[in-house]
Amino acid sequence: MKIVVVGGVAGGASFAARARRLDENAEIIVFERGPHISFSNCALPFYLSGMVASENALIMMTPERFYHQFRITARTEHEVLEICRAEKRIRVKDLKTGEELWESYDTLMLSPGAAPLLPASIPGIHSENVFTVRNVVDIVRLKSYLSRDGIEKVAVVGGGFIGVEVAENLRLIGKQVTLLEAAPQILAPFDYDMVQTLHKELLDNGVSLIVGDGIASVNAASVTLRSGREIPADAVVMALGVRPETRLAEEAGLELGETGGILVDHNYLTSDKHIYAVGDAVELYHRLKRKKARLALAGPAQRQARAAADHLYGIPHNNKGVIGSSCVRVFGMNAAATGLNEREAKEEGIPYGYAYVLTNDRVGILPGASVLCLKLLFEYPTGRLLGAQAIGRGEADKRINTIAAMITMGATLEDLKELELCYAPLYSTAKDAVNQAALVGLNLLYGRYRQEPVSEVRNLVESGAYIVDVREAREYEAGHLRNAVNIPLSQLRSRAGEIPKDRPVYLHCRSSQRSYFATVALQGMGFENIINISGSFLGICLFEYYNDIVQNREKIVTAYNFR
Ligand code: FAD
How far is the CA of 339 from the centre of ligand 1 (A)? Predict the structure, then answer.
């Protein structure tokens, strides 16, 4: 068996190594266009700040070690130019000498990844001060440019994971960073209400964040936005997203799928039964959307590579599709998301509800406890879990990983409510945030109360809605909604007569629990039009802050309180 692999990083190297473990006798050759195989793409941004200390630390495996440990030949700086399927061979160019050679294969694996988008329509996009971040060469080049005298102002274009990580790492070394995003928000896996916390975190840490305005042109010392606004920039990092590298496959007559990725079956075989493909270049099955999707993430690429190698050697693999789980750090905040968000649920026409809880991530009296914002989406009326997002200074990824596992198992709110998780005060709360979110979701699903999202509170305040703040007086005095009436939960029963019955009444507290208690108490007293503001005062402050600052608009709170 002669196995040839195109692309020597996440998918390609994983496939080659797994094939070797399954077959000691196969001849395995990897062709990689760049000078390195098996480097950590995901750690590239951290080299900018020095969190990854050296260029070498980014490289997990050299061709020499690959050969000695696995007897896999990795030819770096070799670009595969053509696949001749009829003769089962590929044409390869040695980029150092310019020589071309043909290499035959029994099985071919394509893991060419995805290339950063660089729209030719943007004037100046190919200037020497414009960079992308895909590999070690890119990041070394960028870092070296930034170390030149006078390179202080950097525009990072694109608020996806790579753009955000690059912006943070540049800020950490004192650069003046502007992060530009054409959409109204950064980080598409998060909903607009959730992501405001991250917008705030970027502002608080000195990143100038501009959303809702795309780049129009790159100039010598600035970028011009579509609005006409000019942003000073000595260097520009383009992180607009990626496009799958499908040229080789397409020219060889392999089928592409509806999303533009290489079409593969459930075993990652392309339309040619001698050619597999995995990773960023392929089209996958999204198990929640029940349709094809692309997903540029390292974990899925490695899993696909292993599954493809297993299939080649007759080991069955149950392809469950993908749900899309990701996480990112934004300065002091950890953010993670899995499955569908509200926008996607709407696009897919899936009826959904959501629970939004702000709760301590561990027992509040212990050092290090902090608030976790957790949003959990579920299907109406089945209660099937659809997705979740968590943001906080604590372990957001732990909660999202738990929910991702439940979604993969097809769980419902009832299952998540009953999920037995480990607990000690330093790690979580007896009823973990994910259990709490499930309980809130069940209350909503079963119609035990109604909720209003934080995104509607400005309208409520401006239209003079009757809002009751059920926090204690000292909390209220430290900052409250402009027109909220303060009736603390501790006085609610004696002062219920002050609350009107002939109009909707909106309740909120600091985070989530007390307004729920107040809501059900008032409902028990015969009030029929009580609505709980999900997220409460903290959620409202987090939601409003960024837009208040950048739009310089009138606040709806007397003072923010982020504690
Ligand atoms: P790659 O790992 O990109 O490998 C493809 C290789 O194929 C490339 O090195 C390319 O040079 C080579 N190649 C292409 N065409 C040819 C050819 N014709 N001949 C020879 N060689 C060729 N994912 C996460 O899950 N979490 C993260 O935190 C995360 N962070 C990231 C940060 C950055 C800066 C980047 C760039 C990516 C990040 N990713 C992250 C995404 C993740 O790295 C990719 O999803 C994953 O590497 C995809 O694997 P792949 O094998 O498809 O492509």
Answer: 22
Q: Is 41 in the pocket of ligand 1 (CB under 6 A)?
A: yes
Q: For 271-308, b where at least 16 C-beta lie within 10 A, e where not — what string?
A: bbeebbbbbbbbbbbbbbbeebbbbbbbebbbbbbbbb
Choosing from 47, 282, 297 the residue with most ligand 1 atoms within 8 A of its CB, the one to mutate for a pocket test is: 297
Residue 31 Cβ contacting ligand 1 at under 6 Å? yes
pLDDT given for residue 563 in this prediction: 84
The whole-angstrom separation of Cα 206 and Cα 222 is: 19
Q: Is the CB of 298 under 6 A from ligand 1?
A: yes
Cβ-count burial of 472 within 10 angstroms (0-12 exposed, 13-18 middle, 19+ buried)? middle
pTM: 0.96
Q: How confident is the model at residue 510 (pLDDT cuts 50, 70, 90)?
A: confident
For ligand 1, whether the C-beta of 387 sits within 6 Å is no
Nearest CA to ligand 1 atom 27: 42
Distance (Å, rounded) from C-alpha 288 to C-alpha 403?
14
Which of 40, 42, 60 is the best mutation target for the ligand 1 pocket, counting ligand atoms within 8 Å of the beta carbon and taking the most? 42
Q: What is the pLDDT of residues 363-378, one digit of tens each?
A: 989 988 999 999 999 9
Task: Report the mean per-residue pLDDT for the chain.
Answer: 97
Given CA atoms 196, 201, 203, 209 in this order, what sign does their dihedral have? negative
Locate 275 and state its tokens: 């050619």
The tens digit of pLDDT for each residue in 177-224 reads 999 999 999 999 999 999 999 999 999 999 999 999 999 999 989 999
User: Two tokens at 161?
Assistant: 């994971």
Q: Which long-range contacts (CB under 8 A, 24 or more apart) does 247-253 make?
A: 248/6, 248/80, 248/81, 248/82, 248/83, 248/110, 248/112, 249/83, 249/110, 249/277, 249/281, 251/82, 251/83, 252/82, 252/83, 252/84, 252/85, 253/85
Given a contact cutoff of 8 angstroms between Cβ atoms, the answer to whether 464 and 504 are in contact is no
pLDDT band, very low/low/confident/very high, at 513 (cuts 50, 70, 90):
confident
Measured by CA distance, the residue closest to atom 51 of ligand 1 is 11
Q: Is-catalytic flag, 42?
A: yes
Element (H, E) at 384: none
Cα-based distances in Å from 472 to 148, 345, 389, 461, 475: 55, 38, 30, 20, 5
Return the amino acid letter for 442: L
